[in-house]
UniProtKB/TrEMBL annotation:
Superkingdom of this protein's organism: Bacteria
Species, as recorded: Phyllobacterium trifolii
Keyword flag Hydrolase: yes
Molecular function as annotated in GO: hydrolase activity, acting on ester bonds
Protein name: Esterase
Length: 295
């Protein structure tokens, strides 16, 4: 069989990555940055920061490039995408994201794999500090950024991190996007951060929060799960996670705050499960973070 005459790695256009050591914990993070070609707008580029950087950078850039070239038909303009990941080839680092994306105080769990470290949670404060103290300044030193149009996206534990960041640092971003946030996690530990936020919700002007989940994260099983050996177990787990119920309840609470400091909304994506939701949610994040006209 004839081989290809040459082989080169496939690169995502106008995207670079940079390994950065956290001043908070000494760990190395891989930061992927997409910057559109051409001159920035006078006020700078809008910017979207995303957790689970390795898993989302390719989708995010392709979604941006496909839609921003036709803004009158898509309502999507160009902007900078910054995804925060880890120095590995896999989509996820389960051990590190468990720590980085979960609210304090955290707990300790058995290892994911034999002969691997125990799993610790509770590092969200440290991770948010890393973004605010190191990543944002690095991005703004090398790219013209419109600080009034900064967005944060996360999925699953990442969505939980978005909510933690929103409740504890509500002026850090204007647009907050939490896809399938694990609100149930550790007996709803996220709830302990809501009262202080609600008492004095210091959000930015025009702040918006978008929550979502897949159709098969509700009380419905996906067709391929019906009749499977773990069907009963999955149905019991759904009574714990309650992704749609918890998100709707939070939206109602936020929209009922005096003066409506945040506009919150919830969306169910038909035909999607917890993991298949990710590319759909990334697309929606691009649409919300870089909307030409906001309604």
């Amino acid at each position: 069989m004839q081989a290809f005459p040459n082989t080169s790695p496939a690169l995502v256009g106008h995207t670079t990555f940079h390994d950065v050591i956290s001043g908070r914990n000494g760990a190395v993070y891989r930061i992927f940055i997409y910057c559109p070609p051409g001159d920035a707008p006078e006020q700078g580029w809008p910017v979207l920061y995303m957790t689970d950087g390795n898993a989302v950078i390719g989708t995010a850039v392709d979604v941006m490039r496909a839609q921003a070239s036709y803004p009158s038909g898509t309502n999507v303009g160009y902007g900078v995408v910054v995804t925060i990941g880890y120095p590995l080839d896999a989509a996820y680092d389960p051990l590190r994201r468990s720590w980085d994306l979960s609210p304090p105080p955290g707990q300790t769990y058995p290892p994911f794999y034999e002969n691997s470290p125990v799993v610790k949670t509770g590092g969200a404060e440290e991770f948010l500090g890393f973004i605010e103290e190191q990543i944002k300044p690095l991005v703004e030193a090398t790219h013209p950024i419109d600080r009034s149009r900064q967005a944060l996206f996360g999925h699953s534990f990442g969505g939980l991190f978005v909510l933690y960041s929103f409740f504890t640092s509500p002026s850090a971003f204007t647009t907050w996007i939490a896809a399938s946030p694990s609100i149930y996690w550790e007996d709803r530990v996220i709830d302990q951060f809501y009262p202080s936020f609600a008492a004095v919700p210091k959000t930015r002007d025009n702040a918006r929060l978008f929550l979502s989940c897949g159709e098969y994260e509700t009380d419905k099983l996906a067709p391929f799960q019906l009749g499977a050996s773990d069907e009963a177990e999955r149905l019991e787990q759904k009574k714990v996670t309650l992704n749609d119920v918890n998100a709707v309840e939070l939206v109602e609470r936020l929209n009922g705050l005096p003066g409506q400091p945040i506009r919150a909304q919830f969306e169910i994506h038909l035909g999607e499960n917890h993991m298949s939701l990710l590319p759909v949610a990334v697309n929606r994040a691009i649409q919300n973070a870089f909307a030409v006209r906001t309604l």
